[in-house]
Write a structure and sequence with these properties.
This protein has helices at 7-15, 31-38, 45-57, 74-85, 96-104, 112-121, 127-139, 146-155, and strands at residues 2-5, 26-29, 59-61, 90-92, 108-110. The chain is α/β, with parallel strands linked by helices. α1 (7-15) runs parallel beside α2 (31-38), α1 (7-15) crosses α3 and α6 packs antiparallel against α7.
């Protein structure tokens, strides 16, 4: 599955130390997203090193695209622009405003929870691992409503 990544998903997957969960995807992104991710003060040196390796080995940086003015941050705007310009149908983001814009433009959106769910559905992780990853996300300041938390647990079989 081809996707274009925004910073939020990459950061949260790094915070739970499971960049391997991204192996089910062919990931594209932009220099703007890369700069945003690697300049975040919230990531520790190990996370930064892992993310640098991810960008150099796994993520295809797209440079030749027409930037769209969407009223978003540079990273989000560049990633959605790549989705449109390169006809990549899936945008990875947890940012509500960016997700709404992408959906308005008929781009499918997957967030951090969706990545965990895809790995669970593909039997790459167990339901226990999925639940533990959800707990790790929350302990790393990932916001999820009680309603969505219950729904996710139900979907994975708890």
């Amino acid at each position: 599955m081809k996707v274009v990544a925004n910073s939020t998903v990459l950061i949260f997957i790094s915070k739970i130390n499971r960049l391997d969960l991204l192996e089910v995807m062919e990931i594209y992104s932009t220099e703007e997203v890369k700069k945003e991710v690697l300049s975040m003060k919230e990531i520790n040196p190990i996370e930064k090193e892992n993310l640098e390796k991810l960008f150099s080995e796994k993520i295809n940086i797209v440079k030749d695209y027409k930037k769209m003015n969407l009223g978003l941050d540079l990273g989000e705007e560049s990633a959605i622009s790549v989705c449109i310009n390169k006809k990549i149908p899936v945008f990875l983001s947890d940012d509500k405003k960016a997700r709404r814009v992408a959906e308005y433009l008929s781009i499918d959106v997957i967030g951090t929870l969706g990545i965990i769910f895809i790995n669970f559905k593909n039997k790459i992780i167990t339901k226990e691992e999925a639940r533990e990853l959800l707990k790790k996300l929350i302990s790393n300041s990932y916001y999820i409503s009680a309603e969505l938390y219950a729904k996710v647990l139900e979907e994975i079989g708890f």
